[in-house]
Amino acid sequence: MSLEILAGIFVLFSMAALGAPVAYAILSGIIVYLGVAGQDLAIAGETMVQRLFDGFLLLAVPLFIVTANIMNAGSISDRLLSFCVAVVGRFRGGLGHVNVMASLIFSGMSGSAVADAAGIGKLVIEMMVKSGRYSRGYAAAITAATATIGPIIPPSIPMVLYALVSNTSIGSLFLAGILPGLIMGAVLIGMNTLISYRRDFGKEEPVPIKKLPLITLKSFPALLMPVILLTCIYSGVTSPTEAAAIAALYAFILAAGFYRALTVKSLYQLFVDSARSSASVALVIGASMILTYVVVKENIPQTLSELLAGAEISPIIFLLLINLLILLVGCILDATVIILVIVPLFIPTCEALGIDLVHFGVLVVVNSMIGLITPPYGMLLFVINAVTDIPLREIIGEIWAFLAVLIFALLIMIFSPNMVLWLPRLFGYQG
């Protein structure tokens, strides 16, 4: 490695160790790199602005953030919960099943694990704790685990970012995430059932069958959102970005007009929060784009590819090693950073080894989400701690069983590329 790249890496990790925001740490490292290399510092600003303005796909990110915030503020989440309780609350460990089902449904609307955990997840935790059947730690742990499904089933903000760095079809990625998301839901329901019988959690009072049609009718407009979103994308009527705008508009009409749950004041605060979240993501994206420029200039991807090619590594061993790496760094780094900074290093090697980039993208996103609940620094653990005041030690004490079954689901996806790619191929994807 050159002196300038070593200096940049040293500053980047030093800033990160001091607790600086990731975007600032990356930008500081890049500025040091350019300075030591004797290059014009304006390259950083020019590269970031140019690539951000060229990225029409990136507009989907703030739109999905707005959609998730409207869902949380507009009582839509409450109605979805009522529907889930009516359907699966009657079984043993019912509120745990409600937690999983709510995440599966909400994931088709928000595309964000944090939005899932902080929004509908907080409501389910309160329900579980108030029932008296579940400990605070267990309620928080299963909520964190189910929130990982959010960015797997479309829409998905991380998949939008992966499509950006890999030049992969976002439509194919969205389709490829459906079956893995359902598998994650299935293994979580299985573990919740097992624990429920072991701890004798009991059943919730079943909702009479005759009330189901009315509850479903009240929730039906909200349940339509994923259908509208995916229909717009796969019918070819809109691009993913335009579909994200339609989803945000539909959520607003639903919350403000149909359910009448938004006020001017709450709408203003909603847009402020969405702008802040979008700006934070945009800073990381912009910084990572400059970092990509540096990485390409230093020929790092080519060097890695040559090393791995020389070692004659098989595709499956490569996938296992990369997933182990992402699993380890995922408990420290945010998924956005992993996808935008680390993953592009390995894409040329994937192509050289004949690994399908859609399959690889799904594995990366799933693995990054598992990292969000991996102790001691999993972000979702801190998010739930912040919104519920449940001590971290209680959450971490209960998270291990759910972490284990999610890793098991990931292994299924690694060894079954045809399963992951079945839906995209059904719709014409050729990989």
In words, what does this structure look like?
- This protein is mostly helical.
- It has one domain.
- It is built from 23 helices and no strands.
- The protein has helices at residues 3-17, 22-37, 42-54, 60-73, 76-88, 94-110, 113-118, 120-130, 136-147, 157-166, 170-176, 178-199, 212-234, 240-258, 264-297, 300-310, 315-330, 335-342, 347-353, 357-371, 379-388, 392-415, 417-426.
- Helix 8 packs antiparallel against helix 9 (136-147).
- The longest helix has 34 residues, at 264-297.
- The two termini are 34 Å apart.
- The relative contact order is 0.14.
Keywords for this entry:
0% strand; 23 helices; globular
Task: Describe the secondary-structure layout.
Elements: H1 3-17, H2 22-37, H3 42-54, H4 60-73, H5 76-88, H6 94-110, H7 113-118, H8 120-130, H9 136-147, H10 157-166, H11 170-176, H12 178-199, H13 212-234, H14 240-258, H15 264-297, H16 300-310, H17 315-330, H18 335-342, H19 347-353, H20 357-371, H21 379-388, H22 392-415, H23 417-426
Helix pairs in contact: 1-2, 2-15, 3-15, 4-14, 4-15, 5-6, 5-13, 6-8, 6-9, 6-12, 8-9, 9-21, 9-22, 10-18, 10-20, 11-23, 12-22, 13-14, 15-18, 16-19, 17-20, 20-22
